[in-house]
Amino acid sequence: MISIQHAQRLVENVLQELEKKSLCHLKIMEGEIIEFKYGWIFFYQSEEFVVTGNEDAMVGGNAPIIVDKFNATTHITGTRYGENFYLDKYCKFRDNIKKFYEEIG
Hints:
single chain, alpha+beta, two-stranded antiparallel ribbon
């Protein structure tokens, strides 16, 4: 089982990859992390927004990232539904990740 600090490092690695396609630096919204049965769901925004609160610096399409604390995997969710939808689907299909991604479309 991994710690939340390890999970944050995993998400930071994902954000570094996402930054290659974006025009800004991305940062975890520390106060918005949700813990659930199998791990955590992380939310992120532009670093400028996280640091300054400048809403003009917000980015769209930033799907939350699930980190499984038992197997240290990361899963980018979606933006169509709220986080509870993605958490419910993950809990239901955790042992069949292909089905998870099919379900969340």
